[in-house]
Amino acid sequence: MSEFVTGVTFGGAAWTPSFVTDLNQRACIGCGRCFKVCPRDVFDLVERDEVLSAEDFDDDYGDFEDDDNTMVMSLKNAADCIGCEACSKVCPKDCFTHQHKAA
């Protein structure tokens, strides 16, 4: 059984951070919520064409058919993640995968 890195909240409760390990760019709608809420420099908005072709993009509603400048989020510096999971809490498309780090 592996032990994970843990911390303590101001109130004294144990807390185990869960670090971002992956971002599903096919599901990302480029809303920027994760970018805005992240207290570190973990994410970057990039043009969809740099990452995915139009056929790969998950566009359930046809919203982006004529939008050549659609942006998606990318992991700019995952090593800066502090494991707060704020990105996942604000993401409307559940794009993030997190993992605890072994001590």
Query: What is the total domain count?
Result: 1
CATH fold node name: Alpha-Beta Plaits
**Which percent range fits the helix content?**
10-25%
Mean pLDDT: 86
Radius of gyration: 16 Å
Main-sheet strand order equals 1-2
Describe the main β-sheet briefly.
Answer: 2 strands, antiparallel
Query: How many distinct helices?
Result: 3
Tell me the span between the first and last alpha carbons: 11 Å
In terms of DSSP E residues, the strand content is 15-25%
Instruction: Sketch the topology as an H/E string, one letter per element.
Output: EEEHEHEHE
CATH class (first level) name: Alpha Beta
Which structural class is indicated by helix and strand composition?
alpha+beta
Number of strands: 6
Q: pLDDT under 50 segments (min length 5)?
A: none
CATH architectural name: 2-Layer Sandwich
Given the C-alpha coordinates, what overall shape results?
A: elongated
Search tags:
103 residues, alpha+beta, Alpha-Beta Plaits
Mind explaining what this structure looks like?
- There is one protein chain.
- The protein is of the alpha+beta class and about 100 residues long.
- The protein has a single domain (about 20-95), classed as Alpha-Beta Plaits, CATH 3.30.70.
- Helices cover about 15% and strands about 20% of the residues.
- The chain has three helices and six strands; from the N terminus they run βββαβαβαβ.
- The strands form three sheets. A two-stranded antiparallel ribbon has the order 1-2.
Give the secondary structure arrangement, pairings included.
Blueprint (H helix, E strand, L loop, with lengths): L6 E2 L5 E2 L3 E5 L9 H5 L5 E5 H4 L19 E5 L10 H5 L5 E4 L4
Antiparallel strand pairs: 1-2, 3-6, 4-5
